[in-house]
TrEMBL record:
It comes from the Eukaryota. This is Peptidase A1 domain-containing protein. Belongs to the peptidase A1 family. GO terms for biological process: proteolysis. Residues 1-31 form the signal peptide. The keyword Hydrolase applies. GO terms for molecular function: aspartic-type endopeptidase activity. Keywords: Aspartyl protease, Disulfide bond, Hydrolase, Protease, Signal. It comes from Camellia sinensis. Pfam families: TAXi_C, TAXi_N. The keyword rRNA processing does not apply. Residues 111-131 are annotated as: Disordered. PROSITE patterns: PEPTIDASE_A1.
Length: 490
């Protein structure tokens, strides 16, 4: 018969063994998704590099965002196999250098918009005589990546348009292309074949709203309102301001939708027909369909170009108090009232909060942007982030900097990486974990930390689309808040 002392020793031993097994179980983690990745103790990700790279075939998201009181459009990456805009002969995806070059043009345009409103002053002076050379005030067209397809006209014609929260106007190419139209995959929209097309007159209230969305004063041609919009990469669109029937789905039809019917369009395009602006403006798509869906929309951007995502209008009957969503206040600034500002207050790496003063983020302000590829951080925040990240990556061989990316590692497609988790802390006491596909950006030989530091302390903080991958990003504009939900799509 065991003595009390012996029993105590046995119980203690069994407790230690149980605790050890529990810790080992936690350390080994649990599988997520298709097995390409594991989350280790919730603070590390293990995956193969090829899961960051586009595949040759299209895979549809496992999530279906269609709900009552909501309409959902399929989102595809224009360089991926899910896009019909992709060249017939599959070409190599953009290199890291090409991605960064295009993205930097976009970031420069966003930063410029805030510097003393200089571009607005230029656009006003350049457009007094006529809308012949639009001021270069918009986002570079070549930086757009995500496409949705809508119907326009009666009978409807399908058009693939890039969408962007940093833009506030909707336009598409139109025949007869009096000056120039770029090549697009689908037939160019011909208003003469639609029974519901109408030009907007110069004296109308709608025409007077144009300048706030295009940063260019409209001109007039035979009492027809003429719009013009220019972009910092030299792309331009000019044409008639008009109304038409917009069809999102067979049951979601919007008559008298205002848009630009462009007959002179030049620039860096990849077969898309035009652009859908989702920014804060009376002429954005969000505002124009708000009578049915409210100022409420959401999107999920896929983990790689090989998957589809979604763009949804309306809240689908879900409550903002739902446990699957976390909300932070949406802010606005007078310097740029069309942008979606948020309050970033901190960053965690591997579960540990970095020592970064909140003033580093508050001084310039922060925006969330669907078009900027790479998140831009204040220099102090980026330095702290990369230092902490590198400390967890000492087992991997660093590569030479690739373009502006200075934290890169030599990899092969079949390389297995274990990286620390990264999460952002926002106002409203919420923490948003970044998917592993949003931590690194990779090609066949390099994997780089997908963040960059700003060169000036006054430069805007930009939360880019790479860090938004697989998140359900919800814009409750009317309610003044931005929501995040995890695993909104594949």
């Amino acid at each position: 018969m065991a003595t009390p002392i012996t029993s105590s020793i046995i119980i203690s031993f069994l407790f230690c063994v149980s605790l050890f097994l529990l810790l080992c179980s936690s350390k080994n983690g649990y599988a997520l998704g298709s097995g390409e990745r594991k989350t280790m103790q919730s603070h590390f990700h293990t995956f193969q590099v090829d899961s960051l790279l586009p595949a040759s075939v299209c895979s549809h998201s496992m999530k279906d965002k269609r709900k009552e009181r909501a309409v959902s459009l399929k989102v595809v990456h224009k360089y991926g196999p899910c896009s019909h805009l992709r060249p017939e002969k599959a070409s190599a995806p953009p290199t890291l250098t090409e991605i960064l070059t295009r993205d930097q043009s976009r970031v420069n345009s966003i930063q410029s918009r805030l510097r003393q409103n200089s571009l607005e002053k230029d656009s006003s002076s350049n457009s007094k005589a006529a809308t012949t050379i639009p001021a270069k005030s918009g986002i570079p067209i070549g930086s757009f990546n995500y496409i949705v397809t809508v119907g326009l006209g009666t009978p409807k014609k399908q058009l693939s348009l890039v969408f962007d929260t940093g833009s506030t106007f909707v336009w598409t190419q139109c025949k007869p292309c009096i000056v120039f139209c770029h090549k697009q995959k689908q037939p160019i929209f011909d208003p003469s074949h639609s029974t519901t097309y109408k030009n907007i007159t110069c004296t109308s209230r709608q025409c007077s709203q144009l300048s706030s969305s295009t940063s260019t004063t409209p001109s007039c041609s035979t009492n027809t309102c003429v719009y013009g919009i220019g972009y910092l990469d030299g792309s331009t669109s000019q044409g008639f301001f008009a109304s038409e029937t917009l069809t999102l789905t067979p049951s979601d039809v919007f008559p008298n939708f205002l848009f630009g019917c462009g007959e002179n369009n030049k620039g860096v395009f990849a077969g898309e027909a035009g652009l859908i602006g989702l920014g804060r403006s009376r002429l954005s798509l969000v505002s124009q369909i708000s009578s049915k869906y409210g100022n409420y929309f959401s999107y999920c951007l896929p983990s790689t170009p090989s998957y589809t995502g979604s763009l949804t209008f309306g809240n689908g009957g879900r409550s903002s108090a739902g446990s699957s969503l976390q909300f932070t206040p949406l802010l606005s600034k007078s310097q740029d009232p069309t942008a979606y500002y948020v309050d970033i207050i901190g960053i965690k790496v591997g579960g540990k909060t970095l020592s970064i003063s909140q003033s580093v983020f508050k001084t310039p302000g922060s925006v969330i942007d669907s078009g900027a590829v790479i998140t831009r951080l204040p220099a102090a925040a980026y330095d702290a982030l990369k230092t902490a990240f590198r400390q967890h990556m000492t087992q991997y061989r660093m590569a030479k900097p690739v373009s502006g990316f200075d934290t890169c590692y030599r990899v092969k497609k079949n390389t297995t990486l274990k990286i620390p988790s990264i999460s952002f802390e926002f106002g409203g006491n919420i923490e948003v974990a970044i998917d592993y596909s949003g931590i690194l950006i990779a090609d066949s030989s390099n994997a780089c930390l997908a963040f960059l530091g700003n060169s000036n302390s006054s430069d805007l903080v930009i939360f880019g689309n790479t860090q938004q991958k697989t998140l359900d990003v919800v814009y409750d504009v009317a309610g003044g808040k931005l929501g995040f939900g995890h695993r909104g799509c594949s």
